[in-house]
Design goal:
This protein is an all-alpha fold and 327 residues long. The chain has one domain. Helix content is 76%, strand content 0%. It has 15 helices and no strands. The relative contact order is 0.24.
């Protein structure tokens, strides 16, 4: 999912020294390093196919996609939570608490905003816009949690905002401003999720994802029912469209999340942010190859600035204090 690896790398780095945390490794001396890089890169590949899957939908509307995608996500990640917590689902969700529920609510806003944005703008514009989520999270973290923002991060945010300005300016000229604004709302939603995850610090993220999928499906349910003449037509999808929606939820997001968590144990937070850029690069590439969707020059220019900002932020973070090893 756009912005997810950067969100998780911030969440990992925010843990206090006394807590159980993922190691911030450089790759030297870790026999699982190459495996970790492969898994994180594979996760970015899974998340990058969201746009092309939506473009391949034949008849389902945006809210039908949101409903079935979110339901599939909630069910598939519930299975992951059950495996991770050895069947103790009630304890897993209780451990997330109200903070986890709020985090899930924010994440559901990101899921909904992303799909709606794809129906009003290009995939490239949407994913580049969502790539700015970590920078919004830095500002929200300062306001809500009192976290300091490094000078390098302020500079990276200024670059990212310049990139947003280019993309939004191009949207005004091309008539896709609604899609850009929806993607921006989704980016802010992901940023809110990031801050709530940091506030909980030791909260397992997987129950939050289940909650997000369930909330998004529940929001989509009455919308789908009210925009069709009867319930039979409202929830009747062709086998082709239904399969794509299930793949979006269970594979694109669910399986992507699973392999990401496997790889994140062996890759530094800085590298997570850099490897996340493969998603921003691949998503527009798939729709160009698959359906001939060519992003505008404004989108490419703004996206290049956003990617430069993310790379600068990640590389500047290489000097940050390393986390203690898992004990």
């Amino acid at each position: 999912m756009p912005g997810w690896p950067a969100v998780m790398s911030d969440a990992i780095e925010s843990r206090s020294p006394g807590q159980r945390a993922l190691p911030d490794v450089s790759g030297r001396g870790d026999p699982g390093y190459l495996f970790g890089v492969a898994m994180v890169t594979l996760a970015g590949g899974f998340w990058s196919i969201g746009g092309i899957l939506v473009r391949w939908i034949e008849a389902a509307d945006a809210w039908q996609i949101i409903f079935y995608r979110s339901a599939a996500l909630a069910l598939s990640v519930t299975l992951l939570v059950a495996i991770r917590h050895r069947g103790r689902l009630r304890a897993a969700f209780a451990g997330a608490g109200w903070n986890g529920a709020l985090a899930g609510a924010c994440l559901s806003g990101g899921f909904i905003g992303y799909v709606l944005a794809l129906h009003h703008t290009t995939v490239a514009n949407a994913v580049f816009m969502l790539g700015t989520a970590p920078f919004f999270a830095a500002v929200l973290g300062r306001w809500c949690l009192g976290e300091a923002v490094r000078p390098a991060t302020w500079l990276a945010m200024a670059l990212a905002l310049a990139g947003i300005g280019l993309m939004v300016g191009g949207s005004l000229m091309l008539g896709t401003i609604a899609g850009s604004l929806l993607a921006l709302v989704a980016s802010l939603s992901f940023a809110g999720f990031n801050v709530l995850l940091r506030r909980g610090r030791d909260t397992d993220m997987l129950p939050c994802v289940v909650i997000a999928g369930a909330i998004a499906a529940l929001i989509a349910l009455p919308v789908v029912a009210s925009t069709h003449p009867d319930l039979a037509s409202a929830f009747a999808l062709s086998a082709h469209d239904l399969m794509l929606c299930l793949i979006m939820g269970a594979v694109q997001v669910g399986l992507g999340l699973a392999v990401f968590t496997l790889g994140a144990r062996h890759v530094s937070a800085v590298e997570l942010a850099l490897l996340a850029m493969t998603e921003l690069f691949l998503a527009p590439l798939w729709v160009w190859l698959g359906v001939g969707e060519v992003p505008s020059a404004w989108t490419l220019a703004g996206g290049a600035v956003v990617m430069a900002a993310i790379a600068f932020q990640a590389l500047s973070g290489a000097r940050r204090r390393r986390l203690p090893p898992i004990v």
